[in-house]
Structures are given as C-alpha cells and as structure tokens.
Structures
1.
Amino acid sequence: MIYYYFYFMIQIQKIFLITLMLCVSGMAAAQSRQVPNKPDYDLAPYHFGFLLGVNEMFFTINTFPGYQKKMYYNNDIKQSLPDQNVDSAYLFNMEATPTFGFVIGIVSNLRLGEYFDLRFTPSLTFGERNLDYTIQSYYDTPEPKMLYVTKNIQSTFVEFPLWVRFKGKRIHNVRPYVLAGGKYAIDLASNAKKKADNTAAYVFINRKDVYALGGVGFDFYTAYFKFGAEITMSYGLFDVLKRDNTIYTDAVDRMSSKMFQISLTFE
C-alpha cells in the first residue's frame, strides 16, 4: 500500500514539473517580442514578500535488525495497549504514512550579486504524520491476534530557513533558480514533554530539529510584482524519537523527519 502511495506521489511531482516547464517555455516564447516587466527589479539591494505553500511531512525510520523477535509481557505490554486484553505481544511491522499540510511565511531577500541572493523565510508550518503498527498479540490462547494501531503525530512548526539562491539568466519575464541552505525548527505542538495518562499510550517526538534544505524554482515578472513557484525538500539531521521503553519505540534505531513542499512566493 505504501509503495503505491509513494509511486502516486512521484507521478504527481513529475506532472507538476513537466507542466511548470511547459508553462515557462510557453510564456517565454509568447513574450519574446514584448517589453520585459520590471527590468530593474533584480538590481534592488533587498526586497520583501510573503509565501504560501502546501507540504507533505513524513518520517524516515531505521529499525533494529530482528526487532520482530522481541516479546513484550505483562506490564510492558499493558502500558502500550491499556485498552486491549493482551498478555504478550510481538511487534510485527512498523511504517510511517505521510499526510498533507500547509505553510505561510515571510520572504526577505538580500542581493549578493548578479546571480546570488541570500534569502530568509521565517514560516509557520502545519501538518501531521502517522505511525502505523501491526502487533501480533496473545491472550489465553496459542493462536495470535493481529492488532492494527495508528499513532497520529500533529506538528505546528515555527521555522527559520536561511537559503543561498543561485539564479540563472533571466529569459524575458522568467528566471530559473536553485536553492540550498538549512533551517532551525521548533515544534509548538510537540508532545515530548506531555505526560501520558493511564488510558492511552503516546509516541513522543522532540521539540527541536535542524534540517538541510534544497530546491528549484522559477521567478515570473509581472507588471506589478514578481511571483515564484518552487519545490523544496527538507531533511532532518537529528533523531527526533523520544524513547519510552514501549513496543512503539523499542524497535527504532533512528527516526528523522522529512518534508516535501510546493510554494508560491509573492514579492
């Protein structure tokens, strides 16, 4: 199921890129004999704007070898599954499911030269991720029972991305660019410090993370403003899982965050 989901998302990304390239080519060809919009816009030392986008958050999970062989008994499993009649259990499978969110932010751009910019885009990012568990459990019977548990992790990030942007040559009213940088993110909705009650078991993640960033995009110059369309990827550098000696975290060697984002900027 996850394979088909990611295959579907890859096809959507390919369609988006192809459509964007066709639009850029069409606009450049149609406008080649017109007067360029805002010909001196990129000569300004700095300018500001705002950003709107959609994102897809997910986790990359590395598990310990042979984690399916560890059995959880009595109090250990009751802490993990307080609402189930279970004496013992194995973790059969674990995987992460991405979901969609959105982002709003402010664009601050400093011109470093003809082809380079320094860009700071503080943003507020909303999203969530699911961790899906398949648990093989036993209760007064030699025959196992399969339990399917989903842990939803909601996030509201305050992000501070700093980018270096390399711009290609302007083609009339279109200009391509690539970005690279890093960001510091604070998850305001992190449950790392919450206390679990006796009726539920939580999966905790750390509040702070650092990401490496990369992306591509195009700027479009209109008569009144410039807007851009870009695709970026964020790769978390730290292990964000908070371990609590339950069936939900013991199998994980490392869990890092990733984010795919499509954004529109208006400057």
2.
Amino acid sequence: MGERVDTFRYLLRDRDSIFTEAFDAVFTSENIEVKKSAPQCPKMNAFAERWVRTVRAGCTDRMLIADVRHLRVVLDEYATHYNARRTHQGDGLSLRAPLDDPNVIPFPAHRITRTKILGGLINECSAASY
C-alpha cells in the first residue's frame, strides 16, 4: 500500500480460515482496524460482492473518477437510482425498484420520456405527462 497506508481506516473481510492472525497483525500494525463479517450472516460477503459488481458494471467501469469527492457523488447518485428507480428481477419485486410503493399499479405509458442520469451514463424512463 506504500504511501497510501494512512488513507485506510478499516479492512473488511470474511471469516475464511485463509486469513490468519498474522494477516490481521500486518494491518493492525499500520493502525488499520480489521472488521470481520458477522458469523450469523454467512452470505454477507456474497451480497457485498454482488453490489460491488453491479456498481462497477453499471456505473464506475464506464467513467473516469477524478477524486474521492467525485466518487462519493457518483455512488450516491447511483445508489439513489438503484433503490428508487431501477427495475429489479429478483426477490419477488416483479420488475419494480425496492423503494416502489407496492400498492401502486404502474399503467403502461403511451409516451415515454427519458431522463439522463450521471451525464447520460444511465437513462431513466417514465411516463410522459400530457
């Protein structure tokens, strides 16, 4: 990690046996706190990896991030899009976003408008107002 070691505060890792006490000691010696995934949540790491893959494929792999502030703005915008507007197939959501009101039935739109998100990297479609 070289000169950048001071920028890290935490190491997040799972409870795999390949990570020994010596492994953790290397980070602890640099004042980096080692945080392990919860033992009662064995799928925690899989969910985190899936989220990282989704963000990379849908957003960050397609743009040049200038600095930490820019990254935070982009990730906040993408998280809002992902949770409030992006359709999802799994978890019984039936192509709805997680924050959609389940009591509202979407009607098919005759006209659709497109809103550009993150400079056109992502497009959101909605029914056009008449």
3.
Amino acid sequence: MKDLMHQQQLPAAGPTPFASTFFHGTKADLKPGDLIEPGNTSNFGERKNARFVFLTATLDAAIWGAELAIGDGRERIYLVEPTGPIEDDPDLTDKKFQGNPTKSYRSKQAFRVVGEVTLWQGHSDAQVTAMKDMLAQLHNQGIQSQNESE
C-alpha cells in the first residue's frame, strides 16, 4: 500500500490566476454572465447617457451606488469582472480625494456579473437624504459629472 501511494503523486500545483472581482451597486435585476455596458442613463448630473460603467473595490461605495441609483427596483450589489481596462473615476479622485480612497473606477468596456452580494447593511435614511441633498447642491452650483455623453 505504501508503494502504491508513493507512485500516485499529485501533479505540482502552480499559481492559479484569479481575476480581480469588484462591486457594482445598482437597482437593475441581473444574473451571472450578464454584461453591464455603457450607454444607460446616468444616475447623476443631467441624466444623459453614461459614457462609462462604474465599479469599486469597496463594499461601502457599491452600497452608495445602489442607494443612489435611479429607478424603482430593489437595491442590489453585484460582483463584477471588467472585460477591458479600468481607470480612476475622476468625479471621485479630484484634488479633494487624492489617491482614490473609495477605490472607484470606470471603463468604456463592459463588466461581467459573476455573483451577487445578498447580505449587506445600507446607510441610514438620514445619511442617504444628506447625500442626495449634497448631490442636488452640486447640480445647482453647476458642478456636473465628467462621465456623461456630450
């Protein structure tokens, strides 16, 4: 028995590549394999067609995305993989937020849904209202998103 076990060695395991997974907050009802693509109505600014799609490496930023998304659907957080290059979201990485503390990114390429986070705690109603008020103030001051179509 000892000799048989010795002869049946497992192949050497090398490193297994793992695609980085990010979060995307929305009110859209999606399934694994679905693509999230640019061109949908923006959640911010003038509500024009978005030139980019957005993802984040932090659950908190994804929760804000779900809570601030337009629409009547249920707030959802998806695990997504980019299908192309991503870059820092300039709306969240200007001089006030150097270093991208929210780990928020954008892309002109689609994201593939790979799963859903089903247990998460949202912000309080007061926090969501305060954030929506702040966004409305920025809009009234003429400060617009850099991410909408022209």
4.
Amino acid sequence: MVKRRSWLGLALALSFLPGVAQAQENVVVFAAASLKNALDEIAATWSKDTGKSAPKISYGASPTLAKQIEQGAPADLFISADLDWMDYVAAKNLIKADTRFNLLGNKIVLIAPKDSKTATVAIKGADLAKALNGGRLSMANVDSVPAGKYGKAALEKLGAWNDVKDQIAQAENARAALLLVARGEAPLGIVYSTDSAAEPGVRIVATFPEDSHPPIIYPAALTRDSRNSDAKAFLDFLRSAKARTSFEKQGFTVLVRSASAT
C-alpha cells in the first residue's frame, strides 16, 4: 500500500507542475520489450491519423510492468508477452476485463552473432551444449520473463536443458538477451523471431518447434484505473488493418481480425 500511495502521490504532485498537465493527456502504454519496433510505428501512425499526441510507451519485461501496475504506476494499457502476467493483473482486478483480447503470436529462435562461423545448430539433447563450446547461452530470465520461460520449456521438451542450465546468461528481458549476442558477449541466445528481425547484428541458426513450448500469445487490455478518453481508441487501433501491417512487417502473427481504422 505504501508503494501504491507513493506512485499516486508522485503523479498528483507532478500534475501541478508547469507543462505536466498536458503531458498527462497522452495515452500511457506498458508493453513487452519485444514489441518496441512495431508499437513505435503504430503509435506514430495513430498520432498522424488522429492529430493527437503519440502514446507514451514504457517497454520492459512483462513481470516488471505487471508489478509496476500493481504498485499504482499510471498506465492506461498493458500488453504482456504471455497470458500468465495478464492473468496476474486480472486476478488483482487491475484491468478492465471486458477490454482484454489476445492480440499477437510469436516464435522463439536460436541466434548467433552475424559474423559467427556457426551455420546451423541442432537443438536436441546434448547438441546445443556442444555448439556452445563452453560459452554462455543468452536468455531472458527463465523463471519470470515470458521469453525465458518459453525458451526453458522448449529446452526441457527437447532434452537439452540439463546440459545447458549451468551456462545460461540471464537477461532482464528479451531485447537485453538479444543485445548480449549482437555484441558478441554470448555465442548463442534464445529470443523471439521478431527480435532477431529487428537486430542486424544477429542471425537465426535454429527455430524451435511450436509444439516444444506453450503457445506464445500477447494479450492486451485497458487498466482498471485508466481515465484517458483516448485509451480505448488506441486499444481499438491495435486491431486495425494499419496496425496489422506494422505487426506483420516485424514478423508477428496477428490473432485478431482487422477492424476499420479510426
């Protein structure tokens, strides 16, 4: 409760500062880090089409964002990279349940630095450990971050987890795991296919079978405390044909039928 009050107190205090009241009118979106390229483009398109200020988007690991919402952070929309963290905020009555829908799907892949000599990697059994050759496997946190949880589940299903579990370099989120490989700090990493497409410094050396892990689903919803009249309009815009184009360009699978853009 103390943390919640501190968030709300800060928001109230800031609202009285010059220039901040106008900033508070922006739609505030909390979104999984893997959405950055697509969502930045969609926000700019929505702003251009409506003449309204572009939404302010805070990107991060889904559990971090969910916990911030729980603590009273002023967000209008939440887009998680898995169902579990949306279920978490829903169980605490922190979203408007009737606005929730499954927006996107994704895949996970194994990547290597672009200039690596590694061509393809077998990902079953002990083959992945051999490919690492003593190096580290970059992954998002395997206990809480969706990309890490999906990756761990796939490695367990394929019989590779026990051979590599002591060689994991865990990162805060999927984009951070991506950077470790792009910078050459890890020889291999597990990220979303959309992350690999957004980073020219890496290339895919294996794709995990879809049946090796739970379905990758990104749900979206308005938060319970959202009072911004434009928030629902932006949430609806995520279903539009224009948004679909941006999502698909980055490699996402759109799970909702396109509606007319507003």
